[in-house]
Design goal:
138 residues, TATA-Binding Protein
């Protein structure tokens, strides 16, 4: 990924029993996105698609793998990244942290966690914001 074309990244974590390909199909359908491309390396597998200036990345961590850099909440096995490219126009799809997080919790029908923001190389902010399916942040 070319960090020169990235404005900002937001990361959410959740727990799901679905395998990554089934999860990706349901995610794409729910969020009205094109089909996602699958890839893998070592302890991770992921799906990715770009739509209207946002790259949606779904990464699945294998059970028992710890990664300090990703800083997943322990109970989660999926990370969902919203990667805002320089082509993204705010307001076109209303893909904000709040709206996406609320919709993601509803999609998963369980709590999700907004756990990291990236504002440039070496500029990470770690947090543990819980978003519930009943959240009124839509």
């Amino acid at each position: 990924m070319d960090s020169d074309n990235i404005n900002k990244m937001e990361f959410f974590a959740l727990k799901s029993n679905l395998d990554i390909e089934d999860f990706g199909k349901e995610f794409s359908s729910y969020f009205n996105l094109p089909a996602m491309k699958y890839d893998f390396e070592n302890d991770y597998e992921w799906l990715e698609v770009q739509s209207e200036g946002v790259i949606y990345n779904i990464s699945k961590r294998k059970v028992g793998v710890e990664d300090e850099e990703l800083n997943f909440p322990d109970e989660c096995n999926y990370s969902i990244g919203l990667i805002y490219t320089k082509d993204f126009k705010y307001g076109e799809r209303n893909v904000t942290v709040e709206s996406f997080g609320s919709k993601l919790a509803l999609f998963n029908n369980d709590n999700i966690y907004h756990y990291r923001s990236w504002d440039g190389v070496g500029k990470n902010t770690y947090m543990n914001i819980v978003i519930t399916p009943a959240s009124d942040r839509l």
